Amino acid sequence: MRDLALLAILVWIIVQAFKRPWIGILGWTWLSIMNPHQLTWSLRTMPFAAAIGGATLIGLFITKDRRDYSLSRENITLMIFMAWMCITLPFSMIFDEAFELWKRVMKIDLMILVAIVLLHSKRHMMLLTWVLVFSIGFFGVKGGAFTLLTGGSYKVWGPESTYIEGNNEIALAVVIVIPLMRFLQMQMQAKWAKTTMTVCMVLMAMAALGSHSRGALLAIAAMALVLWWRSKNKLIGALVMVVVAAALLSVMPAEWWDRMNTIKTYQQDESAMGRINAWWMAWNLAKSNFFGGGFFIWTGSIFSIYAPDPNDVHAAHSIYFMVLGEQGFVGLFLYLTLFTMVFFTAGTLRIKGRAQPQTQWLSDLGGMLQVSLAGYAVGGAFLSLSYWDLPYNVLILAVVGKRWLDRKEWLREKEEPVIYWPAFLKKRFEKKNRVPNL
């Protein structure tokens, strides 16, 4: 039954993508971030992403819907980064495997560019945010409840056969999405909706801790620091954060505390020293090869040449050293430039969005995007998620939001609810004067 229901939804998305390709973008994002087909029995290997992507690209050229091909500094930099990865590909040290990963990265980045062309309204941005929140929140809320029920004795893992299968990866995804949940909560009017979102955010934080990821703990601390710095009443904000942190941490077992304490004694931790060995390998490789080593360099044959300890083979475990080793110093410069631009664009939204009541929501969005990026920058220092879609979807929201603000779209855009409630539910809520504004 679950397989049939998902199949019906995906077929509907494919059909809609021809007429309204922005729906195809939302469907592609849902499929690539959440991977719902991995939760079924018979649909796991079917090429739904390719079908939705193909339908969206066709719809891009045949639709009468609005399209915007204007360039921003972010999509220009992204295209330059893509071009650089094409230049480095022939110099890949392990070409066959690198070519497969290169194709996957190019597909992701192409759809990011297409999304910037197709998405343009407040409703589009709100829906994209909901898709991201639901896609990761499904696993995060469930993982948080699991952590509470088991007292944190078991690790939280992500969905199998996905980018976020590992405990560290799902933890970083959860950390990035928590600020987006807070943004949605800030737009809600109904008390029950706000309360529900608060519970979900607490469970998400619990899931991040339950992953036993040290990088996730540091990322949460970085986000909390940014939120505290932005708060109007810093004393009350600090007290609330301390109380919440104490409540969450009190659940975690002794083995969790032992693992977190290795942050201070990383020299004695094999996992931490293995990561440092991989980072030195990436540094040495990039110094010796202007074009980097290409994708898929984290193998014994490459470590035997460039690593201080050739027998300690690890994945990059860092978004920065992953790009450095694979794309060289030029690639790392482009990568850092891209997300630095996104951070400052989000800051522009946060400041300029305050000017009009109609744009206050955009100020909220910009502030929370910066918090997400802070979590990604800190947590990503210890994880290999340089090319995954989710951070690039933060880029989409920042770029489309800036374009919406600059063109004063609120003057011509009719206010529409993001979710159309069934008539009987809407009438029921209207009687109580609290229609959900979602």
TrEMBL record:
It comes from the Bacteria. PANTHER family: LIPOPOLYSACCHARIDE BIOSYNTHESIS PROTEIN PA4999-RELATED (PTHR37422:SF13), TEICHURONIC ACID BIOSYNTHESIS PROTEIN TUAE (PTHR37422). InterPro entries: CHP03097O-antigen_lig-rel, DUF5935, O-antigen_ligase-rel_domated, WaaL-like. Residues 200-336 form the O-antigen ligase-related domain. This is O-glycosylation ligase (Exosortase A-associated). It is a multi-pass membrane protein. The chain crosses the membrane at residues 41-63, 75-95, 101-120, 127-150, 170-188, 200-229, 235-254, 290-308, 328-349, 361-384. The keyword Ligase applies. Keywords: Ligase, Membrane, Transmembrane, Transmembrane helix. GO terms for molecular function: ligase activity. Residues 1-186 form the DUF5935 domain. Its main location: membrane. It is found in: Membrane.
